[in-house]
Design a protein that fits this description.
The structure holds two protein chains of two kinds.
Chain A: H1 23-28, E1 44-50, E2 56-62, H2 64-68, E3 72-77, E4 99-100, E5 106-112, H3 115-123, E6 126-131, H4 138-141, E7 170-178, H5 181-187, E8 190-198, E9 210-215, E10 221-225, H6 230-241, E11 248-252, H7 269-275, E12 283-286, H8 289-294, E13 301-310, E14 316-328, H9 334-343, E15 353-362, H10 376-393, H11 398-405, H12 424-434, E16 448-459, E17 469-475, E18 481-484, H13 494-506, E19 513-515, E20 519-520, H14 535-562, E21 569-572, E22 575-578, E23 584-586, H15 587-590, E24 595-596, E25 603-604, E26 609-614, E27 637-648, E28 654-663, H16 671-690, E29 696-697, E30 700-701, E31 721-722, H17 748-760, H18 771-780
Parallel strand pairs in A: 1-12, 10-11, 14-15, 18-19, 28-31
Antiparallel strand pairs in A: 1-5, 2-4, 2-6, 3-5, 7-15, 8-13, 9-10, 9-12, 11-20, 13-14, 16-27, 17-18, 17-26, 21-22, 22-23, 24-25, 27-28, 29-30
Helix pairs in contact in A: 10-17, 13-14, 16-17
Chain B: E1 3-10, E2 13-20, H1 25-32, E3 51-54, E4 57-60, E5 73-75, H2 88-96, H3 105-118, H4 124-130, H5 142-153
Parallel strand pairs in B: 1-5
Antiparallel strand pairs in B: 1-2, 3-4, 3-5
Helix pairs in contact in B: 2-5
Classes of the chains: A alpha+beta, B alpha+beta.
Chain lengths: 785, 154
C-alpha cells in the first residue's frame, strides 16, 4: 500500500497538545474583543443611574432635565420596560421599577454622544426613595422576623425544579432526604459539627462587561457582547421585550475572561433597551471596574453547617448539611446554584444517610450569579474541612479516610442516582504522591510552622435537563474545513479543542480546520451557554457528530463513484483512500463540485455540509421533598488537591511550598490545555482562599477596586504546581472526555484550611485566610505572644 | 477643556495628534490611532492591561496623559513583531501555552519585553516581580513565567 497514507503515519489530534488556533491574534493585539469593534462617529455611550440605598421604594424618577441636556439621545427608566427577565426564577427587571434591592441597582439609563455627557446627565436625574428596612444576613433573611424583599415572589414565573416560598425571602429550598439520619447518628462512633462562613467574592475578569446594541429602521436589533451566552441572551432579552428571538441578533467576539459572570443576562439588556429609543444608533455600554465589582454578578456568600459522622472504622454513616446562600437582591440565576449545591451536597463521599437543606435567601446584597464552581467551592469549603476533622478524630490517616469513603462505580448517590466509573481515588493517589504525603516534614526554621492539607471534590454540569448543543461542518474547494458552533472561546481553549475533534472525526489535518467565529446567532448553530464545564463534552459530541456526518456523505459519494463499499474507504490526512483498491483522491477535488461520472455523463455529490447535535435525554426530575430521582445529573468530574505550606509565626503569612491538583477528565483532548485549566483554576481558588472578599458593610461594598480587593499576582504563585490528571473515560463523552473548567478552584479553600489546621491546630471560620486573621488566631490560642 | 497638538513616535511611526488635554495615552492609542491591542482593565493603574513602553519604560497608559507624550517613543503590542516576525517573547508565550483569554497578554508581553531589555538573564523571582503589576485571572501565571524564561534563552 505504497501510496495509501495509513493511520500510523498520521497521529490523531486527540490527546495531542496542539498549539491554540486563536493565539496569533492574541499575541499580536489583533484579536477583537467587544470594546475594540469600531463603529465610527455614529455611536452613543450608555451610563446607568444607580441606587445608593440597599432597600427602598422608588417614589419618583424625574428624567426631564437629563433628557433636555444637549448630547443626550435617550433616557429610560424601569417603567419603560415592565416585563420581568431572568434565566430561572424571573424576578428582575431591566431597570428597577418600584423598588431597589441592593446598592448599585440600576434605576435609569442614559445614551449620549459622549461618556462625559452621559455622566452629567446622570447627575440631572432625580430619584425619590423611601427607605425600607434592609436584610444583610441570609440566616436572618430566611427567618420570620425579616422584612420581605420580594413580596410578589408568588407571581414570578419559575421552572418546575425550583421551589420558592412566597411570603418569605426564600427563593429556593432544595432538600435531600436519603436513608435514615435519626438511626445513623447513634451508630456513629465519631461526629463532627461545624459552621463555616464563606464571603462573597467577584469573578474579576480582566475585561469588564461590554455590550453594544443597535436597532435598525426595521426594528431588528444587533447586540455585540462579551458574552458566555449569546443564545440565552437572545432568548431572554427578546422575551422581555416581546420580540421574536430571531429579531435580536447577538454577535459574541473573544471574551476577556468570564468565569460565569458573563453568563445569563445582566447588563446586556440595558444598551438593547436604550437602542430601542435611538433607532440607527449603536449604544455602547462598558462597565467600569467598580461597577463590575458589585453591580452585576458576584458569587453568593454561604453560611454552611455540616454535621458528619462515621463508625469506628471511619466509614461515613450520616451527613446533615444546612446551607444558607446569601443570594442578593435578585436570585434569577442563583436559585440554581442552591439547587446544584443541594443535589451534590454529599460531595464525592459515599454516605448512606443524608439530610440536606440548601436554601437561597434574598438579601439586600449584590446579585449572586453563576460563578466558576456553581456552589461547589462554597460547599466543599465546609464539607471537606469537617471531613478532615472527622478523620483526625477517628485517628485515621486522611488519605486513607478519603479513599475508603469516596463514591465508587455503582454506589447510590445522595439523590439516588447510581455513580459511574470515576478516578477520584487515582486523583488522591497522584496528589498524595506528588506532595510526598507519607513523608515526615519539618518547618524550614524555628520561626515557621509547617503543614499539609488535602481535599477532594466533585461537580456535575448544572443545567436544565434539556440543554442542547449543535454544530455544522462545511468543506471548501481547498479541502479545508469550517466548523460552525455556538459555544464561546472565553480562554478555556474550546475553539482549539473543537478543531481537534473535527479533524479527528473527519480525517483532516488540524491545521486545515477553522472555527466559524465570532459566534453570531444569525449564522451559528445553537448552543445553550458556555458554562457548567459542558462544552468539551456536549458541544464536542455535536461537533464530532457533525464531522462524522460529513465523513459519511463524502464516503458515500466516493463509494458510488468508485463502485466500492463505503466500509472499505477512509479519510486520512485529507485524502479519501480505499483500503481495498488503494485508490485515493484528495478532498480538494470533491468537497464542492463532486465527482464526474464516466464518459462525461454528469456528476455525483456536491457541497458537503455535515450536521450534528447533542442533548442528554436521561436527566430526570427530583422529588421536591426528598431530592431523590433516577438521574439527577449527566455525570460528575471528580478531583483532589493538596497543599504543602509554611506559616510565619511572626506575621501569620502563608507561604505555599508546593501544590498538587488532579482531576479525572475522562480523556484529555489537549493535555496542555487541560493542565492550563487546572493551573489557572487552582490559582483562582488559592486567591479566593488567601485574599478575596467583597467586604460588605450595611450593603455597601467598601473595597470595589484592586487596591483593596486583592487577587493573586505573579509573585504569589512562586511554587511548583503539579497537575497529574487522570483519565477514566466518560461513557457518552467524545473520546471519553468530560469537563474540567470549573473544578480546579473548588477544593482549594478546604485544602488550604486543612493545611493551616495541620500547621497550627487552628481552624478558622472561613476564608480569606489572611495573614492578619491567622496571626490573631495564633495569638488567641497562645501559639504566639 | 482644551486641545493640544502632540507629535510622538508610536511603533516606529511618527504621529501628530490633536488630543483633549484630559485624554489619557490609552484613550489616544485606542480611539485616535485605532491601536486597540492595548486594553483597559481598571482605568486606575492597578491591573496592567494597558501597559505600553514609553521611552523604553513600561507604564500604565491609563495613568499617563496623552499631552505628556510630546516627543515620546511609544511601543504597543502591535509594535512587538517586526516585519511579520513575532518577537521572542511572543513566540515563547505561544510555545509554553501562556495565553488563554488573551486580555492580559498585550500588557504581559510589554512588561516582559521591558524586563528582558534591561536584564537578559532574569531569575524566576525577578520575572515574577517584573510582572507583579500585570494581573491575569486565567493562567495562574505559570506558563507566562515559563515563556519569559524561554524567551531569555532564545
Amino acid at each position: 500500500m505504497a501510496n495509501v497514507k495509513n493511520k500510523e503515519n498520521n497521529p490523531s489530534p486527540i490527546g495531542a497538545s496542539l498549539p491554540r488556533n486563536d493565539v496569533y491574534e492574541k499575541v499580536t493585539g489583533s484579536a477583537v474583543y467587544t470594546e475594540d469593534i469600531q463603529f465610527g462617529n455614529k455611536i452613543l455611550y450608555a451610563r446607568v443611574k444607580r441606587s445608593p440605598l440597599p432597600h427602598a421604594l422608588i417614589k419618583k424618577v424625574d428624567v426631564s432635565k437629563a433628557r433636555a441636556l444637549p448630547g443626550v439621545k435617550a433616557v429610560i427608566t424601569g417603567a419603560d420596560f415592565p416585563n420581568k427577565i431572568g434565566l430561572y426564577l424571573k424576578d428582575k427587571n431591566i431597570l428597577a421599577i418600584d423598588r431597589v434591592r441592593f446598592i448599585g441597582e440600576g434605576v435609569a439609563a442614559v445614551a449620549a454622544v459622549s461618556n462625559e455627557i452621559a455622566m452629567k446627565a446622570l447627575e440631572l436625574i432625580d430619584v425619590e426613595y423611601e427607605e425600607l428596612e434592609p436584610v444583610f444576613d441570609a440566616v436572618y433573611g430566611a427567618s420570620k422576623e425579616a422584612p420581605l424583599i420580594h413580596p410578589n415572589l408568588g407571581d414570578y414565573s419559575v421552572p418546575n425544579f425550583i421551589f420558592p416560598k412566597p411570603g418569605t425571602n426564600i427563593a429556593n429550598h432544595f432538600k435531600i432526604r436519603k436513608g435514615n439520619l435519626e438511626e445513623a447518628w447513634p451508630k456513629c462512633k465519631y461526629i463532627v459539627e461545624r459552621t463555616f462562613k464563606i464571603p462573597h467574592i467577584q469573578h474579576v475578569p480582566i475585561e469588564t462587561h461590554v455590550a453594544t446594541a443597535m436597532m435598525d429602521d426595521k426594528g431588528k436589533i444587533t447586540l455585540w457582547a462579551s458574552s458566555q451566552s449569546p443564545f440565552a441572551q437572545r432568548a431572554l432579552i427578546a422575551e422581555c421585550l416581546e420580540i421574536s428571538p430571531t429579531d435580536l441578533r447577538v454577535i459574541a467576539p473573544f471574551v476577556g475572561g468570564g468565569f460565569g459572570c458573563k453568563a445569563g443576562v445582566t447588563m446586556e439588556a440595558i444598551p438593547v433597551a436604550l437602542a430601542t429609543k435611538c433607532k440607527g444608533w449603536p449604544v455602547k455600554f462598558v462597565l467600569t471596574r467598580e461597577e463590575e465589582f458589585y453591580t452585576n454578578f458576584v458569587r453568593q456568600g454561604l453560611t454552611i453547617t455540616v454535621k458528619v459522622g462515621c463508625d469506628e472504622k471511619g466509614r461515613l454513616l450520616g451527613l446533615k448539611n444546612m446551607m444558607y446562600f446569601d443570594g442578593g437582591g435578585s436570585t434569577e440565576y442563583g436559585v440554581n446554584v442552591t439547587r446544584a449545591a443541594g443535589y451534590s451536597s454529599s460531595g464525592p463521599y459515599d454516605i448512606e444517610s443524608v439530610e440536606t437543606d440548601s436554601i437561597c435567601v434574598y438579601t439586600n446584597h449584590p446579585i449572586g450569579g453563576a460563578y466558576r464552581g456553581f456552589g461547589m467551592s462554597e460547599l466543599h469549603t465546609g464539607l471537606d474541612q469537617a471531613m478532615d476533622e472527622l478523620a483526625e478524630k477517628a485517628g485515621l490517616d486522611k488519605v486513607e479516610f478519603l479513599k475508603m469513603n469516596t463514591v465508587k462505580e455503582g454506589d447510590k448517590l445522595d439523590t439516588g442516582m447510581i455513580m459511574h466509573a470515576n478516578g477520584v481515588n487515582q486523583c488522591i493517589d497522584n496528589v498524595a504522591k506528588s506532595i510526598h504525603w507519607t513523608d515526615a516534614v519539618k518547618p524550614s526554621s524555628p520561626d515557621k510552622l509547617r503543614g499539609r492539607g488535602i481535599a477532594i471534590m466533585w461537580k456535575a454540569p448544572a443545567m436544565p435537563p434539556n440543554a442542547g448543543s449543535s454544530a455544522w461542518v462545511e468543506l471548501a474547494e481547498d479541502g479545508h474545513v469550517t466548523v460552525g458552533l455556538g459555544g464561546q472561546e472565553i480562554g478555556q481553549g474550546t475553539f482549539t479543542v473543537m478543531a481537534q475533534m473535527a479533524a479527528a472525526a473527519l480525517g483532516v489535518p488540524y491545521e486545515n480546520v477553522r472555527i466559524a467565529g465570532p459566534v453570531d446567532t444569525q449564522y451559528s448553530p445553537y448552543e445553550w451557554q458556555t458554562v457548567a464545564s459542558r462544552l468539551t463534552w456536549s458541544m464536542g459530541n455535536a461537533v464530532r457528530n457533525a464531522a462524522l456526518d460529513a465523513r459519511k456523505q463524502i464516503l458515500d459519494v466516493v463509494a458510488q463513484a468508485w463502485h466500492e463499499n463505503a466500509d472499505d474507504l477512509d479519510i486520512v490526512n485529507g485524502i479519501v483512500v480505499s483500503y481495498k483498491t488503494e485508490q485515493e483522491t484528495s478532498l480538494k477535488n470533491i468537497a464542492i463540485y463532486g465527482i464526474p461520472k464516466e464518459n462525461d455523463q454528469g456528476w455525483v455529490g456536491g457541497p458537503i455540509i455535515g450536521r450534528g447535535s447533542f442533548m442528554p435525554s436521561y436527566v430526570t426530575g427530583l422529588d421536591p421533598e426528598t431530592g431523590q430521582g433516577t438521574r439527577s445529573v449527566v455525570h460528575y468530574t471528580t478531583g483532589c488537591e493538596a497543599l504543602d505550606i509554611e506559616i510565619d509565626k511572626n506575621t501569620g503569612k502563608i507561604t505555599v511550598l508546593k501544590a498538587a491538583a488532579a482531576f479525572d477528565v475522562g480523556r484529555a483532548i489537549n493535555p496542555t490545555l487541560v493542565k492550563s485549566q487546572i493551573e489557572g483554576g487552582f490559582v483562582q481558588g488559592l486567591s479566593s482562599a488567601m485574599f478575596e472578599e467583597i467586604m460588605l458593610r450595611k450593603g455597601v461594598m467598601i473595597n470595589p477596586s484592586f487596591v483593596d480587593y486583592r487577587i493573586a499576582t505573579a509573585p504569589d504563585v512562586d511554587f511548583p504546581i503539579d497537575t497529574p490528571f487522570v483519565e477514566v473515560p466518560q461513557d457518552d463523552g467524545p473520546w471519553g472526555a468530560r469537563g474540567v473548567g470549573e473544578h480546579p478552584m473548588v477544593p482549594t479553600i478546604a485544602a488550604l484550611g486543612n493545611a493551616i489546621y495541620n500547621a497550627t491546630g487552628l481552624r478558622l471560620p472561613g476564608p480569606p485566610y489572611s495573614a492578619e486573621k491567622i496571626y490573631l488566631a495564633m495569638q488567641d490560642a497562645g501559639i504566639v505572644k | 477643556m482644551g486641545f493640544q497638538r502632540i507629535t510622538l513616535t508610536v511603533n516606529d511611526l511618527v504621529e501628530t495628534v490633536d488630543v483633549p488635554t484630559n485624554m489619557t495615552l490609552l484613550q489616544m492609542l485606542r480611539d485616535k490611532l485605532s491601536l486597540t491591542g492595548t486594553k483597559n482593565g481598571c482605568t486606575a493603574g492597578e491591573c496592567g492591561a494597558c501597559t505600553v513602553l514609553m521611552n523604553g519604560e513600561p507604564v500604565n497608559s491609563c495613568m499617563v496623559l496623552a499631552a505628556e507624550c510630546e516627543g515620546a517613543t511609544i511601543i504597543t503590542v502591535e509594535g512587538l513583531a517586526k516585519g511579520g516576525q513575532l518577537s521572542k517573547v511572543q513566540q515563547a508565550i505561544i510555545k509554553t501555552g501562556g495565553v488563554q483569554c488573551g486580555f492580559c497578554t498585550p500588557g504581559m508581553l510589554i512588561s516582559a519585553t521591558a524586563l528582558l531589555a534591561r536584564n537578559t538573564n532574569p531569575t524566576e523571582h525577578e520575572i515574577r516581580e517584573a510582572l507583579v503589576g500585570n494581573l491575569c485571572r486565567c493562567t495562574g501565571y505559570v506558563r507566562i513565567v515559563e515563556a519569559v524564561k524561554e524567551a531569555a534563552k532564545m
